[in-house]
Fold these 3 entries.
Entry 1:
Amino acid sequence: MIGDPVAPHVLSVDSTSGILSIFGAITAMNSKLTHVDKKGRPRMVDIGKKTSTSRSALAEARIFFPEAVAVALRAEGMHSAKGPVIDTAIIAGTMAVKRTHELIPFCHPMAIDGCRFDVEFVSGAELAIRCEVSITHKTGVEMEALTGASIAALTVYDMCKALSHEIVIGEIRLLDKRGGKRTVKAGRVRK
């Protein structure tokens, strides 16, 4: 709740051993986080010694329209009073992919090799936006793909909000990641 920053994070510990247990869990978690140093301070990961490999990521954002809005948009060829909804979203998403490092503090600046969007209705009132990003580099592009899908979804909302403020941006998730240490397929880590 806004104005009450403590409420969602209330933690009650009745004993010293409970506090030590929580501290141990946080310390263990920090040792697995690559953007946290041994003192618990944030840092950018040094990728200097990594080998460049071919990498790609696919992310998806879902948008839910009120049924009447979806019908109206389809009838107008996905144009709103502001202009072409999908084309504008793709341009905004592409711009976001290229500027992810300016939005998310520990992302490395990268020269993206490819960026592609697929946008389609997957049901009568549910729009799926998929952003696929590729690169040959020392680090992955999942944050770029997630940023592209997110900003494209926000752009759709902006382009359509005059029709309804009941439009909902739903799940935003990584669908696929290749290259690097982990492979993700269908939203699940594969070995």
Entry 2:
Amino acid sequence: MAGRLGRAALLAIFAAGGALGAAASPSAFDLAGRYTFSFRNGDVSGAHYRTTDELVIVARDRTHAVLDIQLNFFNGHECSLTGEAVLEGSALVHRETDSLLPGEPPCTFRLWRDRGRLRWDDGDNSCKTYCGARGSFMDGGMAWSSRRPLSRAERARFLGDASQNRP
């Protein structure tokens, strides 16, 4: 009888620990990694080729990360953004203070996990200066399953490059 009670108590402790882990506060480390999506692309001449979209997120600590996103669109147009992001709720947010276009809002780029996808958006196309004519950061995403960890050397190199490019 004592053995059954002991096991029951132990199971209750593990269950409580699992519940605590499930409700743990979000972290930039939760989103860190390399995400890729390859697809058939083309141009106005009728040529077809493969391109790969890539997003790299490297956490500096629990609430800060560096991101680099490169997206490809029809006819060779691209979106490219590199910068610092801060955890706001469960999303990483890259927020610029000044606009690159007069009269336009500054770029605000958000990344978050939505079930089986890593999603991103820039609100009302606020980061359009980082995109070609056919490109946009609006309502984008990649499969969560495309996420791959970065090696320690890749992470160090990425953070080193980001530190050199700071204003």
Entry 3:
Amino acid sequence: MNILNEITNKSTIPWPVFSKEKFRTAISSCNNSSAPGPDKLSWSYLKTILKDDEYLNTIIHITNICINLGYWLSYFKISTTVVIPKPNKKLYNSPKLFRSIVLLNTVGKLIEKVIEERLQFNIASNDFIYLSQLGGLKFKSTTDAGVALTHTIWAGWVKNLSTSTLTFNIAQFFPLLNHWLLSLIMKKAGFDHYIISFFANYLVDRRTNYGTIFLPIHFPSIPVKIKEGRLDLFYFFQFFNF
């Protein structure tokens, strides 16, 4: 595609096996009060379990094998979607008066969190992300965004120009991402075929079971597209800001 021809190919990024330290660091920051997903496993219990190196090594082994095979287990692709009424409404007679929360399997979330850290480090270290892309990146803050905007304003003043800002939201951007294009961009970013194959499989064949805050809705699991906020698409979004 012509749009990709303008992008320089980055050198292939090494993807070593994960260590116990990476997993322990990742799980230490997880909130014990977060609601569990279909596996009903809370973060506090998982933290206790993974103090045993035998269990921790098993999860690390699963993670490394998934990457090497380019496959994300179907067990981790099943979620629970809880429909919650928005507070302080007089009537609840419209879908807009409710919101949904997607709950994932806790072990899968931990693995995703570790991969997220590696993914972001790699794409930042090889300078693939545009310098003015600040959203969702570690070590970037509101201060950085303010400095970037101030620089743009002052640069315009030097040329006797006025600067204005335009903000907008692209509806359904994340569910409608082109997976094939995404794989090509990852290749441009320097990821090897193992990690590209893994994410290609990660994106598809997902299902969810619906429920309410009071009781589950007894329907068969429903196929769904991946939503905003999942680790991969949030950082894949950075790829689209070249």
